Amino acid sequence: MAEADVDVAIIGAGVVGCAMARRFALEGAKVAVIEAGTDILSGASKANSAILHTGFDAPPGSLELGCMQAAYDEYMQIRAAMNLPVLETGAMVAAWTDEEEARLPDLLAQAHGNGVADAEIIGREAVLAREPQIAPGIRAALLVPREYLIDPWSAPLAYATQAKMLGARFLFGAPVTSAERAGGTWRLEAGGETVTARSVVNCAGNQGDRIEALLLGASRFEIRPRKGQFVVFDKASGALLRTILLPVPNDRTKGVVLTRTVFGNLLVGPTAEEQEDRDRPDVTRPELEALVAKAAELVPALAGMPVAAVYAGLRPATEQKDYRVHAVPEMGYYCAGGIRSTGLTAALGIARHVFALWDGAAVPPADPPVPVMPNLAEHLPRDWQAPGHDGIVCHCEMVTGREIRAALDSPLPPGDFGGLRRRTRCAMGRCQGFNCLARIATLSEGRLRAPIVPEDKA
Amino acid sequence: MSAMDLDVAVIGGGPSGLAAATELRRLGVGRVVVLERFGVAGGIPRHCGHPPFGMREFRRVLTGPAYARRLVGTALAAGVEIRTRCTVTAIRPGGVLELATTDGAETLAAKRILLATGNRETTRAAALVPGLRPVGVMNTAALQSFLYEEGRSPFSRPVIVGSEMVAYSAVLSCRRHGIRPAAMVESRGRVQGPRFYALANRMFGVPLVTGAEIVAIEGKTRVTGLRLREASGAERRIDCDGVIFSGRFTPEAALARASGLALDAGTLGPEIDGAFRSSDPCVFVAGNVLHPVETAGYCWAEGRRIAGRIAADLAGEAPAAAPVPLTLGPGLRYAVPQRLVAGEGPVTLNLRAEGAAKGRLVLAEPSGRELAAASVSAAPEASLRLDVPALDVLPGQLVVRLDREG
Question: What is the complex's ipTM, to 2 decimals?
Answer without folding.
Answer: 0.96
